[in-house]
Design brief:
CATH architecture of the domain at 186-318: 6 Propeller
CATH class of the domain at 186-318: Mainly Beta
CATH topology of the domain at 186-318: Neuraminidase
Distance between the termini: 16 Å
Helix content: under 10%
Strand content: 35-45%
Order of helices and strands: HEEEEEEEEHEEEEEEEEEEEEEE
Low-confidence stretches: 1-21
Mean pLDDT: 91
Strand order of the largest sheet: 8-7-6-5-10
Structural class: mainly beta
């Protein structure tokens, strides 16, 4: 159960707007600060965090507020707290998005550093269904289809744009039952041919047969489109059954402007799965193991700490 974000994680996120924090190995131990506590605001369970800083250094912590218990689809709402002192204290809990008995899932945020706009993507799951349900349908218009929504704030979270349905631009028309943004954060490229591009990491199902891909915008979030699936996501076991290696995913920019992804593992070795894109998330190298990063199969985070003249630069993983 997500009860708190650690200050170490806060320090990793702050640098995107204010410059990198002190070297992790030299940083003083920080006291943990409870951001969300189970039961707060009437939410029995609070999970699936997204933590990001805007250009001013203000921190935004979003999550799924689950009033119906610890189920991924339990009429969840998207909730928010804001800190103006780098996570030392937090304002009151507010609800950014709710939709009756339908479940809202997978908050994923990204900041456009040129405009200051903070975007939030999330998905809507029809009431009574879950990601493994046989009743989930392909496409965009069925009442039993997964939908993806986009909202944003231009005033530090005081108000949010009415959610826009962007499903047609981030979901393939056939063969896709579920979609998930992140969860976590997106990135904005700072170098190379695609400098300024906003990227939100995604996975798609059916359940157990997931793929990873990127959704991106080159015009400050006015229009969004999706790239190709990462190849090699599926493997076959010794009984001839096919399983996906990937699922929840995060991405980071490398020193040459490429994009690296780190995905939750669901098959193969119990390590993170990774891939590289040399064209801003449009196409990818085949999935490979990241043997130095063990993964018991859980949500993880990936963040660029700095760039270097050679190699990827320093990346942080939690």
């Amino acid at each position: 159960m997500l009860a708190r974000f650690m200050m170490w994680t806060l320090a990793m996120s702050v640098h995107s707007a204010t410059g990198p924090p002190a070297c992790p190995t030299a940083a003083k131990a920080q006291k943990a600060v409870n951001v969300f506590t189970a039961g707060e605001g009437g939410f029995a369970v609070i999970r699936i965090p997204s933590l990001i800083a805007d250009r001013s250094g203000k921190l935004f912590a979003l999550a799924e507020g689950r009033a119906g218990g610890d189920s991924d689809q339990a009429a969840n709402q998207i909730i928010l707290k804001v800190s103006e002192n780098q996570g030392k204290s937090w304002g009151p809990l507010s609800v950014v998005a709710s939709d009756g008995n339908n479940s809202l899932n997978n908050p994923c945020t990204v900041v456009d550093q040129s405009t200051g706009r903070l975007f939030l993507m999330y998905q809507r799951v029809p009431s009574g269904l879950n990601e493994g349900s046989s009743k989930i349908e392909d496409g965009f218009d069925s009442p039993n289809a997964y939908r993806s929504l986009l909202t944003w704030t231009d005033n530090g979270g005081k108000s949010w744009q009415a959610p826009m349905d962007i499903t047609r631009f981030v979901k393939r028309a056939q063969g896709v039952k579920t979609i998930c943004s992140g969860p976590g954060i997106g990135i904005q490229l700072t170098r190379g041919k695609h400098r300024g591009r906003l990227i939100v990491p995604f996975n798609e199902g059916p359940y157990g047969h997931w793929n990873n891909y990127a959704v991106f915008s080159d015009d400050h979030g006015k229009h969004w489109r999706m790239g190709n699936n990462v190849p090699g996501a599926h493997i076959t076991d010794n009984k001839g059954r096919t399983h996906s290696q990937v699922n929840e995913v995060q991405m980071a920019e490398t020193s040459d402007g490429s994009v690296i992804l780190s995905s939750r593992q669901f098959a193969g070795a119990h390590v993170r799965k990774q891939s590289i894109s040399r064209d801003g998330g449009e196409t990818w190298s085949a999935v490979s193991d990241a043997p130095e990063i063990q993964d018991p199969s859980c949500m993880g985070s990936l963040l660029r700490y700095n760039f270097s003249k050679h190699g990827m630069g320093l990346l942080l993983y939690s």
